[in-house]
Write a structure and sequence with these properties.
Bound molecules: pyridoxal-5'-phosphate
Structural class: alpha/beta
Distance between the termini: 6 Å
Largest sheet: 8 strands, mixed
Strand content: 15-25%
Length: about 725
């Protein structure tokens, strides 16, 4: 496997060797319970006290309390509970309190979720109010001035985890102190620790949250700072540890490890200086600029942590960049927490008011303050290689991709699909069902493959799709054929020929190389049929693909007497195409990639997909048993260029990117059945491919669950 370059330190870091050694020492030698009064306990207690006093010194905590907690989420929880209990007590005493719980729009979810949770649980009915940020991620101080008079608690982070944007805490404090009754103030300092100077007791901060695993300590240890006069309510009651403020036997291994990290911070040998970190960050930024023309940094670097870069590349989604970097052994993350199925646009970048494409393309690169020059140099070399791959594969500009293949390309965005029908010989294409969110990707693809566009069409009747269709047509400018420009309101070009469909009707048809795309109006909706006509006829078995809106088929099938009954529109489509015609929808609420008329007519259940998962440990045995199995790598071409292909001696392997899977379906379905084993990076895309085949009635489809990542390939 390619050696790993880990650039996701804002998510978590490895544990510093000295911290791991301290943890081991605490578990082996200083294993005592710090509440015990014998020698063993006293020694453990002493270790804990010395870590606390080091933390107090380093953070400038003065007379404030520093509690050991499990992490920042617990610290935030405790702070919110304390502040809200104080509000409740004041109310009970008949005093007036602020009605607002104010939080920055880019706070980590732990903050708004805790506010909502405790507000609900305590029945306080306070109002959660978002403090907006500007396009650089800085808090809107005028808005804060407007809220502060009625605020009970204000939550602002010291530095943002996604963008690295550094908040102006001094300015925020000035606004808070002007209020007649100063609200309580919680600052999430998770990303600031070790990267920004902190002197807590010199500020008006009431609560500050820290997490060890963001700075080379293990997961499960953190700190909560509580200013000397701030109200406090324990989150955990029990044995009275931490002077009764946080019960539960302390995480001594974690505390010892945190102590080693703090010691390293204090002695100045392990962590790089601010100036060095800025130099390393600039090296990374310069290599990104050189490798990825058009790159946009999503926050001004001068107001950003020196260890974080957040950027977007026009026409390339976060997911594509993550896949590419991952294949090249560079671990980065999208600007948002993303589930396997869906890379949601970053809420942080959306809150900053950045354009939708920037939020949907964001990638975060972050390194820890103990990073070496060598790691950054190696990362720069890989970035250069990734840039070359992106350009060569036509994903990033500028490029003139020559390796263009015929067929249908699927672009997806959160369960919605756009389709590009491509003829390589004439270098022309037709776009069906474009979406606003996919526009930059479609334009980049078309530009980099140097394609002429014969038509931009939609099967959907709603205003949103029509506006996405006409916007893309405009954006394509000279690439769009004149006949399409002069076409009708649906984008259907002038001067099209006529073709007779299987039901005897005559349809307008647009030639695409050897194929024709026929417009088929049925049951009040529109579909487009792609196939190879024979002497002006398109018999049902010549139709390979039908592009249709979601409402046209599956959704309209109802069950009667236990059997599926086709909708009127499905029945009409059935008269002009064959059962094996691939249905390419504009949206599939079920998450299916594609289906066929046949598969829509049979009842499928998830049970069919249950045994399709192969663990990496059983893959070899499976392949031994099935000598004729075909390994199908569904990663995109650029990922293969970045990393080694998964080869299995003696087994045939093919590359069919998921975005082009639909072209292969009929060949597999109509050919001699053989076991297909799909593979990809994480098991997500290969799972979709195998499930798609199973639903189409192809029982011999499997995939490598957990992907190449877990198989160590
Ligand atoms: N706050 C910020 C800014 C973070 O980055 C994180 C971690 O992702 C948290 C809070 C939550 O920290 P923990 O994982 O220690 O609960």
């Amino acid at each position: 496997m390619t050696s790993e370059i880990y650039l996701d330190a804002n998510a978590t870091t490895s544990v510093l060797p000295a911290a791991a050694a301290s943890a081991l020492h605490a578990m082996g030698e200083l294993f005592g319970n710090p509440s015990s009064t014998h020698y063993t306990g006293l020694r453990a207690k002493d270790m804990m006290a010395s870590v606390r006093s080091r933390a107090t010194r380093l953070l400038g905590a003065g007379h404030g309390q520093l509690l050991f907690v499990s992490g920042a989420t617990e610290a935030i929880q405790t702070a919110v509970l304390s502040a809200l209990c104080a509000v409740r007590e004041r109310r009970q005493r008949g005093e007036t309190t602020g009605q607002l719980l104010v939080y920055g729009a880019t706070e980590h979810k732990a903050v708004p979720e805790s506010l909502a949770h405790w507000n609900r649980l305590l029945g306080l009915d306070l109002e959660l109010r978002v403090l907006p940020v500007d396009t650089q991620g800085q808090h809107d101080l005028d808005a804060l001035r407007g809220m502060v008079g009625d605020a009970a608690l204000v939550c602002t982070m010291a530095a943002n985890n996604e963008t690295g944007c550094i908040s102006d805490l001094v300015a925020i404090e000035e606004v808070l102190c002007v209020a007649a009754v100063r609200p309580l103030w919680l600052v999430d300092c998770v990303q600031a620790l070790g990267k920004l100077p902190l002197n807590l007791a010199a500020t008006r901060i009431d609560y500050a949250a820290f997490s060890g695993h963001k700075l080379y300590a293990p997961k499960g240890i953190g700190l909560l700072y509580v200013q000397a006069d701030a109200p406090f309510t324990p989150l955990m009651a029990g044995g009275g540890q931490e002077a009764g403020l946080r019960s539960g036997t302390e995480n001594m291994a974690g505390i010892a490890a945190l102590g080693a990290v703090l010691e390293a911070l204090e002695d100045g040998h392990t962590f790089r200086s601010h100036g060095t970190l800025v130099r390393l960050r600039d090296e990374l930024a310069n290599s990104l600029r050189a490798a990825l023309p058009g790159i946009v940094f999503n926050t001004p670097l001068a107001k950003t942590l020196p260890t974080t870069l957040n950027f977007s590349i026009p026409g390339v989604s976060s997911k594509e960049l993550l896949d590419l970097f991952d294949a090249a052994g560079v671990r980065v993350s999208s600007g948002s927490a993303c589930s396997a199925a869906k890379a949601a646009p970053s809420f942080v970048l959306e809150a900053m008011g950045l354009p939708a494409w920037q939020a949907a393309s964001a990638v975060r690169m972050s390194f820890g303050p103990a990073t070496s020059d060598e790691l950054i140099s190696a990362a720069c070399a890989r970035i250069a290689a990734c840039g070359a791959i992106l350009r060569a594969s036509g994903l990033a500009q500028p490029s003139r991709q020559t390796n263009t293949e015929d067929g249908v390309v699927q672009f997806s965005d959160d369960g919605e699909y756009a389709w590009l029908l491509l003829d390589a010989t004439s270098r022309s294409c037709i776009v069906v069902d474009p979406l606003e969110a996919l526009e930059p990707r479609l334009v980049t693809y078309i530009d980099s493959h140097n394609l002429g566009v014969l038509a931009v069409l939609t099967t959907r009747a709603d205003a949103e799709h029509e506006s996405a269709r006409s916007a893309l047509a405009r954006r394509l400018g000279l690439r769009l054929d004149d006949r399409a420009k002069a076409g009708d309101g649906d984008g259907w070009p002038t001067g099209c020929g006529a073709i007779t469909l299987a039901n005897g009707s005559v349809a307008s048809a647009l030639a695409l190389g050897q194929l024709s795309l026929a417009r088929f109006e049925h049951a009040g909706s529109k579909a487009y049929l792609l196939g190879q006509p024979i002497h002006g006829h398109m018999p049902a078995d010549a139709v390979r693909f039908a592009f249709t809106a979601d409402t046209a088929v599956g959704a309209a099938i109802t069950q009667r007497d236990g059997g599926p009954v086709a909708s009127a529109s499905l029945l009409q489509l059935a008269r002009v195409m064959q059962g094996a015609t691939v249905l390419c929808r504009s949206r599939d609420g079920r998450g299916h990639l594609a289906s066929t008329l046949q598969s829509e007519m049979v009842q499928t259940s998830n049970a069919e997909e249950e045994d399709m998962h192969l663990r990496s440990a059983t893959l070899d045995a499976f392949l031994e048993l099935h000598a004729d199995a075909l390994l199908v790598d569904v990663r995109e071409p650029f990922e293969l260029l970045a990393g080694p292909a998964p080869c299995k001696a003696g087994h045939e392997a093919v590359h069919v990117p998921l975005s082009r899977l639909v072209n292969q379906l009929d060949t597999w379905l109509q050919g001699t059945p053989r076991p297909l084993v799909f593979v990809c990076r994480s098991g997500n895309r290969s799972g979709k491919a195998a499930a798609c085949m199973r639903r189409l009635g192809y029982g011999q489809a499997w995939h490598l669950a957990g992907g190449l990542a877990l198989a160590g390939r």
